[in-house]
Amino acid sequence: MKKRLRITGAILALSGGVVLGMQADSILLDDTRDALKKLEHAFLIINGKYVEELDSAELAEHALEGMLEELDPHSVYIDAESMRRVEEDFSGSFEGIGISYEFVEGVAGKDTVTVLSVIPGGPSEGVGLLSGDRIVEVDGQSSVGFESIDVQRTLKGPRVTKVDLVVIRPGYSTPIGFTITRDRIPLYSVDVAYMADPHTGFIKVSRFARTTYGEFMQAMQDLKERGMERLVLDLRGNAGGYMDMAVKMADEFLMDEVLIVSQKGRTRDMNRDFMGTSGGSFEREPVIVLVDAASASASEIVAGALQDHDRALIVGQQTFGKGLVQQQYELPDGSALRVTISHFYTPSGRLIQTPYANGNREAYRQEKQRLHAETALLSLEEIIERAPDSLRYTTAGGRTVIGGGGIFPDYIVVPDTASLFLREVFRRNLANVFARNWYARDNESLHVKWGDRKPAFFNEFDVDDAAFEQFLEFAAAQGIALGEDGFSAADVAADRPFLEARIKARLAVRLFDLDAYYPIMHSQDRTYQEAIGLWDRAEQLLADN
After folding, report:
1. Which of 169, 268, 365, 421 is most buried (CB neighbours < 10 A)?
2. Cα–Cα distance, 4 to 440 (Å, whole number)
3. Does the active-site annotation cover 322?
4. Which is the catalytic residue, given 15, 75, 295, 297?
5. What is the dihedral sign for C-alpha 303, 309, 315, 321?
6. What is the torsion angle, in degrees rounded to the nearest 10, for the CA atoms of residue 322, residue 324, residue 327 and residue 328?
C-alpha cells in the first residue's frame, strides 16, 4: 500500500518545482531554470528512494501548498474536486434538480435531507416538490444519514439525466415518489431586489460571479420601472469574485473617464487602470452602500470607487481588506494555482490590502480580527485623527478617507452585542428549527391563508404571544430555560422583536422563496435602519459632487 505522507517545510518547497515543469520552462531565466532542475531532482529522490512507497500525486499537491504558504495569504492551490465546485459557484449555474436544502435530524440521530425551497422554474418545481419534503430515497437507495457530499453526488448531474426520489411530506400518511429530469439551474448572485418604500430600492449582492452584472442591471431596470429614486446597495458578507463585474457595477454610478480602480504589479503588463464609461444607469441619484468586515475584494473595489468619487455614502463596518489580485492558472489534472499578480488601489491611491508577513492564513485572519476590534468602537473622526499622514487620502470632493487596510465607512455602525440567550439560540439554530416545525405542522393552512398573498404576509402576519410562548417552551426543552445559566427574562424581552422577526422570516422562506427573508429581517437590522436615516447626507454628497 502506498504511504500517505504529509511533508512540510523546505523539502516540500523543493519538490514542488517538477509540477510546473515544461509549462514554465519557456519563461524562465537561467538561474531560475537551474533552481527548478534542483527542485525536480529533489522530488525524484524523495519519491524514488524514501523508505516507504509514496503517493507521488499527493506529495506534489503538498509541495505546491508548501510553496504557496511562503507567499501571501491569498495565493492558494485548489485541488481538482474543489476547483469544480469553485467554477460552479462563480459560473452562475449548475446542473441538478433545483432545490436548496437543509439537514433535519431524523430516526436514530441520522439526518434527513429536507427541501428548504425549490428554485422557481427548475425541474423540482415542475414535478411538484415542496418545501418541507424530506428526501428518504434516491434512486432506490436510502438517503437517511446523507451528508453534503452525498447530496452533491446523487442529486447533481448532467442535464437530461433522471433521478428517482421518494419523499415524506408533512400531513401525508404515505411516501410520495418523483422522477425528476435534471436541468441547468441558475445560481443567482443578486439575492434580493425590492422596493423598500415608494422611492427606495434595495439590492443585495452576495458575490461577484460571471452573471452578476447582468443580474444587477435587470434588478436596476425592474426597480426603476417601479419608481426607484434612490438605492441601498448591500455588499455585506460579499467576499468578492470577478473584478470585471465589480468594475462594470461601479461604472453604472460614475461619470465617464473617471478612474474606478488601478491594478499594479511587478511587471508593466500587470499594470492597468480601469476607467468609467459613458451611459451609466444611475449616475445622478443618491446611493448608500452597506459593508461589513466580510465585504472583501471586488466589494471593496465598488465601495472604494464610489467613496473616492463622493458618489455614495458608505455605511457599516470596516471592510476585510483584500487588495491582492489573483490570476488563476489551470494545471493538467483540473486543479489550479491562484497566484497573486498585483495589488489594486482605489482612485485616491489607497491600497486596500491589509499588511501581511507571509502566507500564514491563520495569523493573517487573527491580525485582521484584532485590527477590526480596535477600530470597532471608534468614530470616523477618531480614526482619522489617529491615522498617520501616510494613510490619509483625499476624495474627489476634498473629504479625508483612510487607507492601510479595507474601506472605512463614512458612517460607522457598531454591531449589536448578542445576549447569552440569543447566542445560544443562534448556536443551536432554534429559531429556524421552530419555524420548520411550525411549517411542517401547519403548512396546509399557512398556504391557504398566505400562499398567494406575499405582501399581506409581510404586513399582517405576527408571531403572537401564544406562538412566542411556544417558542420559549421549545427552547426550554432544548436546555435554555429562563432563570438557568444566566438566561434572564430581561434578555428575552429585549431579544423578542428580533426572534419574532427571525421566526417569521424563516416561515416566509418556506412559504415563498429565499428572498422573502430580507424584507422581514430589515426591521431588526441595525445597520440598515441607521442607513435609511442618512439620506440627507447621501443627497448632500451628490449635491456637492
Report:
1. 421
2. 47
3. yes
4. 297
5. positive
6. -40
Give whichever of 193-202, 315-324, 378-387, 512-521 has the largest mean pLDDT.
193-202
Listed in sequence order, the residues at least 6 apart from 532 whose beta carbon sits closer than 8 Å to its beta carbon are 196, 200, 232, 288
Mean pLDDT along residues 501-523: 92
Give the pLDDT confidence of 504-514 residue by residue, as tens digits: 999 999 899 88
Active site residue 297: yes
Catalytic annotation present for 449 = no
Judged by DSSP in three states, 50 sits in coil
The length of the chain is 545
Which one from 234, 308, 310, 525 is the annotated catalytic residue?
Answer: 308
How many C-beta neighbours within 10 Å does residue 515 have? 17
User: Of the listed 322, 410, 504, 525, which one is catalytic?
Assistant: 322
Q: What are the two backbone dihedrals, phi and then psi, of residue 176, each rounded to the nearest 5 degrees? A: -120, 135
For residues 312 and 232, what is the distance between their CA atoms, to the nearest angstrom? 10
Encoded amino acid at 491, one letter: D
Q: How far apart are CA 49 and CA 61, in angstroms?
A: 19
- Can you read off the three cell numbers belonging to residue 182? 435534471
Q: What is the DSSP letter of 97?
A: -
For 16, the grid coordinates are 514542488
The answer to whether 349 touches 393, Cβ cutoff 8 Å, is: yes
